[in-house]
Design brief:
Length: 421
């Protein structure tokens, strides 16, 4: 297969079979990528992007033309009235928290309709921890609707939404859950359901891992606000930090007041030379997401050949870039992550071990040899060390690189006598 890495013939044969299984899915991914690339390119052209938009600003950042126009480009791409795109967002959780605190007020009622949200957002809401300045500490009420058979329970959602519901919160991706991620069509059903019960309810979508996976985004089906991270899909593997919020103009303005200060909002904020990366990251994002999707589909096919449980299956419709892989025991889980790390361009010599990672309730093992620390659009594999011992794999800046990492993960398991099949 390659003169650079030693791969057992059994694994090479499985890889050949997996590639033949993936052909139809790869064609579909290519079609979506082309559509989204043209959509992004049109927004750049319509807004007349030039070298002048990359000029740094300092201090207050008044009149930063590049910053203000970047918001317009994002709004057009995501079919929103306005957007807030800033390198100041330190991670996806910070971006989501800014949106929640920006929009909700004491006494408001937030309803999550996709079960309990991702681990790191639980502290923001006040589900876990206390006295940290969570929504709960500020008198914002929270409730949730459990999933039914791993899907949103529309009947239960209908019963839970009433005239007192301020916000309906939707987590598009699965987090460390095995439920299917939500497609834009799934989100559309939820939006129709809740708006029928309360037309004034604010529908917010945690869009992390979902950008450019489909041809439409949640705003196009009635969501009022979406948010995500620039070191996931939206930054194309180029943005080194940052996040975005997009949606209704009045809601985005409130979020801007939370990020900076009331009365100033979007009018301030030096870009310090970061604009070029944020523009370029958005431009590359549709292609980079397509590479991550191909990587996920291939890994699903490869390990299904060996007899492992994979979610989603290689030929299922995708709603995000995340691939779950059931490895059945701690030893196989750790070996898989160590194999992924061994093929990474950065820190390949490190050996991932389970550790107490901040924000999680169990030890986590993580393979993440990335150019940007914590970048989930670059190939990574991580998992909490708890039953049923699934790994969550996401990213892949290019398919060929991700493919060899997957093969090395299988090789690591084979060398340790852990590979099934």
């Amino acid at each position: 297969m390659t003169p650079f890495f030693k791969i057992d013939k059994r694994i090479e044969d499985a890889s050949d079979k997996a590639l033949s299984m993936c052909k139809e899915q790869f064609d579909t991914i290519g079609d979506i990528a082309e559509y989204n690339q043209l959509k992004v390119q049109k927004a750049f052209i319509d807004n007349g992007i030039s070298e002048t938009h990359f000029v740094p600003s300092t201090g207050y950042g008044y009149g930063d033309r590049g910053r203000d126009t970047l918001d317009k480009v994002w709004a057009q791409v995501f079919c929103a009235e306005d957007a807030l795109v800033r390198h100041n967002f330190v991670c996806g959780t910070h971006t989501l928290a800014t949106a929640l605190f920006g929009v909700l007020r004491p006494g408001d009622n937030m309803l999550c309709v996709t079960g309990t949200p991702y681990d790191t957002i639980q502290g923001v809401i006040g589900i876990s921890g206390s006295g940290m300045g969570s929504l709960k500490d500020y008198g914002i009420n929270y409730s949730e609707v459990a999933l039914k058979d791993e899907r949103p329970d529309l009947e239960a959602i209908k019963s839970a939404v009433n005239s007192d519901t301020t916000m309906v919160y939707i987590q598009r991706s699965r987090g460390y859950e095995l439920r299917p991620s939500l497609s834009v069509e799934d989100i559309e059903e939820i939006v129709k359901c809740v708006k029928k019960q309360n037309p004034d309810v604010i529908v917010m979508v945690d869009n992390c891992y979902g950008e450019f996976v489909q041809k439409r985004e949640p705003i196009e089906v009635g969501a009022d606000l979406i948010a995500g991270s620039m070191i996931k899909n939206a930054g194309g593997g180029i943005a080194r930090t940052g996040g975005y919020i997009a949606g209704r103009r009045d809601l985005v303005e409130k979020c801007a007041y939370r990020l900076t200060t009331p009365g100033l909002g979007k009018e301030v904020g030096a870009t310090l030379g970061m604009n070029r990366e944020l523009y370029m990251g958005l431009f590359y994002a549709p292609h980079t997401v397509s590479q991550a999707l191909k990587s996920a589909v291939y890994i699903s096919a490869l390990f299904s050949v060996f007899g492992y449980d994979v979610k989603p299956k290689y030929d299922e419709k995708r709603a995000d870039i995340v691939q779950s892989l059931g490895l059945e025991n701690e030893e196989s889980l750790v070996a898989f992550c160590q194999g992924i790390q061994s093929g990474s361009p950065i820190d390949s010599f490190l050996l991932p071990e389970p550790w107490d990672m901040p924000g999680y309730d169990s030890k986590v093992v993580m393979a993440a040899g990335a150019f940007t620390l914590g970048s989930s659009i670059e190939l990574s594999a991580d998992a909490p060390i708890r039953e049923p011992f699934y790994a969550w794999i996401q990213g892949g800046l290019n398919f060929n690189s991700a493919k060899i990492c997957a093969l090395l993960a299988a090789q690591q398991m084979l060398d340790k006598g852990l590979l099934k099949g």
